[in-house]
Amino acid sequence: MSQQYQIPGTPRVISPSPTPSENPDGKDSYFAPITRSAVSKRIASPSSITEEKDSDSDLEKRARARSRSPKSVAKRRRASGIAAVTPNVGIPLAAASRPKRKPEPREPNGDANGHLSPASAAASYLRELSRSPSPLGLIPIHRHWRSFIHRHEIPRKALHVSIGFFTLHLYTRGVQTSTIHPYLLGALIPIATTDYLRHRFATVNRVYIRFLGALMRESEVNDKYNGVIWYLLGTWVVLRFFPKDIGTMGVLLLSWCDTAASTIGRLYGPYTPRIRKGKSLAGSAAAALIGILTAGVFWGLMAPRYWGFEKSFMFKGMLTLPDVARTSLGLKQEGRGTIGGLLALSVMSLWSGLVASASEVVDLWGLDDNLTIPVLSGLGLWGFLKVFG
Q: Over the range 205-242, which residues count as b (16 or more CB within 10 Å of their CB) and which as e?
C-alpha cells in the first residue's frame, strides 16, 4: 500500500547550460567564448539560492527574512501576545523597550557637600539667567519664590526705597536730624552684635536667616556681615556729622540711586560697557538721572514748600563763585558771579546726580556700598557747597 501511494521526490530543475561540475568531459568540453559583458553580468547578479533535500537543521528550515516594517512588527507582537508599549509618541520602539536606569542615590540636601547643588536650585531657563543672590538655595524664602525674589531682590529693594519716603515724611513733620541719629545708633549696636554672634554660632545663624533671610544675599549667609549694618552706619554718619540738607540728601541718594543703579544695571548692563566688575554704564547713568531728580524734588519742591531754606541748610537757593575766582575774572562788584533761582537749582541737581553716580561706582577698600554711597555723597555735596555756597 505504501509502495503504491509513495510520494514522488521533488523534481530538480536543470539549467539549459550545464555547470562545470556536471560536465563529464571536464576541460575537454567545448564552451562558447566569454565576453566582458557576460563577466560583468555574472559578477553583478546575486548568488543563487541552493536548496538541499531532506535538511533537518533549524537554520536551514528558516524561511526568508521577515519584513522589518513597523506595521508587520506590530502585527507579529500582537499575534504573539507581546504589547508594544511606547510611553511617548515619537520615541522609537527600540528606545522605548530599553530598561530605564535607576536614579543614583543622592544626599539629603542634593549633594555630597551638604548644600543644595546649583543644578537643583536652577531648574528653569529664567533661573539660569538670573543673577541670583541665592544660587545655592540656602535662604528658605528664596527657595519658595526663586524666579521673582532672586532676580529682582524685591524685599531688599523695597526696604531701600521705603526708607527714602520715610525720610521725607520725617522732614515734612519737622523732625530734626539731631533727634534721629541717636535712634540709628541704638539700633545699630544690637543688630551688629547679633550679626557677630551668628557668624560664631550656627544655631543663631539658622534662626537669623529664618526671619531675616528675605533681606539678605547669599554672600551674607556665611561670609559677610548683613547689609543692614552698613546701611544704618552710613545713614548715622551723614545725619550725625553733616548739615541737615546734606544729611537728608545723603539718605535719599542711598535709598533711590542705589536701587535704580542695581535694577537698571541688571536689566541693561550686559548691553552697555562695563565700568568695573559688577558696575555698568547703564546702572551708573540710572543713578545719575535719579540723583538729578532727587535733588530737584528736595531743594526745588520740598524745602520751599514746608520749611524753606533753613539756617542749618548749606544750599539756600544761590551759588557764588569764590572770592579768588571773582577777583581773577574781574567780578568784584556785588551781585556779580552769583546765580540763583532755577539756574542754581539746575547746577546743584546736576552736581548731585554726578556725585551719586560716582559714589555708586567707586570701590573704597572693598567696603559695602550702603556705607560708601551716603558718606561719599555727603562729602561731595558738602565740599561743593563749601566752595560755591
A: beebbeebbbbbbbebbeebebbbbbbbbbbbbbbeeb
Furthest-apart CA atoms within the chain: distance in Å: 153
C-alpha grid cell, residue 105: 542615590
Q: Is the model's pLDDT at 108 over the cut of 50? A: no
In terms of DSSP H, where are the helices of the chain? 36-44, 58-61, 70-80, 93-96, 118-121, 125-129, 140-144, 151-152, 154-172, 181-200, 202-212, 219-222, 227-241, 244-252, 258-268, 281-297, 303-306, 323-329, 341-361, 369-388
Of the CA atoms within 13 Å of residue 258, those in its CB half-sphere come to: 30
Question: What is the per-residue pLDDT across 214-225, written as a single tens digit (0 to 9) for each?
Answer: 667 777 777 778
Phi–psi pair at 339, nearest 5 degrees = -125, 155
> From residue 154, how far is each of 142, 220, 262 by CA, in Å?
11, 17, 12
Phi, psi of 319 (to 5 degrees): -130, 135
Task: Judge whether residue 290 has pLDDT over 70.
Answer: yes
The yes-or-no verdict on residue 378 having pLDDT over 50 is yes
Distance CA 267, CA 275 (A): 16
Contact 279/265 with Cβ under 8 angstroms?
A: yes
**Neighbour tally for 377: CB within 10 Å:** 29
Please list the residues that pair with 280 across neighbouring strands.
Answer: 274
